[in-house]
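Q: I have two molecules that I believe assemble together. Could you output structure tokens for the complex as a whole instead of separate predictions?
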Amino acid sequence: MTQNQQILLDNRPQGEAVESNFRLVQTDVPALQDGEVLVRHHYLSLDPYMRGRMNDSKSYAASQPLGEVMIGGTVGEVVESRNPKFAVGDQVVGMGGWQQYSVVDGNAPGLLRKVDTTHVPLSHYLGAVGMPGVTAYYGLVKIIAPKAGETVVVSAATGAVGSAFAALAKARGCRVVGIAGGPDKCRYATEELGFDVCIDYRENADVKAMARALKEACPDGIDGYFENVGGYILDAVLLRTNAFARVAVCGMIAGYDGAPLPLQNPALILINRLKIEGFIVSEHMEVWPDALKELGTLVGTGKLRPRETVAQGLAAAPAAFLGLLKGKNFGKQLVKLV
Amino acid sequence: MTQNQQILLDNRPQGEAVESNFRLVQTDVPALQDGEVLVRHHYLSLDPYMRGRMNDSKSYAASQPLGEVMIGGTVGEVVESRNPKFAVGDQVVGMGGWQQYSVVDGNAPGLLRKVDTTHVPLSHYLGAVGMPGVTAYYGLVKIIAPKAGETVVVSAATGAVGSAFAALAKARGCRVVGIAGGPDKCRYATEELGFDVCIDYRENADVKAMARALKEACPDGIDGYFENVGGYILDAVLLRTNAFARVAVCGMIAGYDGAPLPLQNPALILINRLKIEGFIVSEHMEVWPDALKELGTLVGTGKLRPRETVAQGLAAAPAAFLGLLKGKNFGKQLVKLV
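A: Yes, here they are, computed for all two components at once.
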């Protein structure tokens, strides 16, 4: 009988998340029922949204139940199938969670999707050509909807979402400004990801300094902002918005631990006639086909070369996840499971 | 030669606006040039947006220049005309400013509009069937875009905008909840303006109390909010928003004096996938014809019976305006000039 390692949410964070919130267990993989598929996960995706799920309170999605396998995107290979739609050896993307194997109902729509790795490496289906890439697409194309020549800004610029955002925005003729932590990430943003400028938030650690840096980086003002972070960076960006600027709110990492994170000057919403919109990409499945097609082409043609930080083995997932929340990763954070 | 009284902006407010910011002067009405029209103002409109114009800083419109006649909407009668489009006796609405007479270029598009007072009293063209009414229309119809059965909330509920908002929202089958100051205004809101419930903010003077009152008034949550005020009321409303709620930001009276007015929990934008949009109605002239038609019908058929507070004589305008900013008026604040 195949053994499976799983990581469960054992208890909820009191403030900052810690490794002891998680628990690693060994279980047996159950025998397949008719229609089911056994997937061996090659990579587990770690994403900021998971922190929100760890809370009991109303977050931007349902809570992760205690004592169950942590939710998470996975790519892998079909190793056993009792479903004619899936054959052993098929490469698939799904929401397998923090575990080595998952048993999936192959008939449930959307749970498991076969992918082609001819031009796109398997792991990228968890990043640039997966949920993070589509997230960037929705925020940019559907909310910010930039015209060529407009200036757009993204925080967490070198992450999976930020990388895809840059490529998509450059393809639309925008000036693209990133915000990231540290000179290495900023250099990577401009040299490899196509950002016109990248601002180091560690060198601009309050609203005044950040607003000054943004003024220099965005001489024509800001027309669109993709928010991954929240806090003083958002305050500074709003100060530099042009009339009718659009703000897509995708994440507020800094607020997940429950620290109060007020917006200092909401009157700017009126003064600059801003549109600010929060979204969860899983609620907009209608954009996925177009988004994945464009993102796959950008990766296949080398216009989007996303970097990955890969932790080894399931047991390394909690530490890697906590590092992600602190910006320790470089590009997309994955856990390699085989 | 006809004498004209004018009120100029003499100096800018330091914090709260005061009467000495204004100055009353006497001038002669100049002789008309070809194409010009002389309008005798019957009513001057006082509106919260004027406070923003008094500041030198970037506000939600251009600054009012010092030493010039205060900007303002007016209705009146043509008393002299050198333009074939306008005859003596025509009733007109325009932006005549804080003065008894104005000389208007009758050929400039949009500056002067003839109105019909058969079914709608002249003064209402400054309120329900004018800029405030169209403001309510734009926020409700174009930003909130409610479905029948949804719950919408408006602050400053008994003002010119709030009154029109209630009638427009009831016509769309919404549950309409108002927020106003004091039992008289709240009673007026439910008994005469059609609000289902009106919450007295004086009885609910902090975010916790207001959130509790909103929970009771909106048992199905809040789907749309029309923001005239800002501050703790906005914080409380956001706590009660449903997923995909829309917030139209039209005013932030509490913030005009420069007091910091942070939004306590912007993470709710993400958690509830809110859309928050600021607007100025004069930038959306395309909606005016439809809006004025519907508003005129609502007034003409008695479904919208706006109340007015009328100050007598131009010299009374500054005090009436300062009272408006403190919510001392009841319904639309006007100054009667003849």
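A: One point stands out. The first helix of chain B runs from residue 49 to 54.
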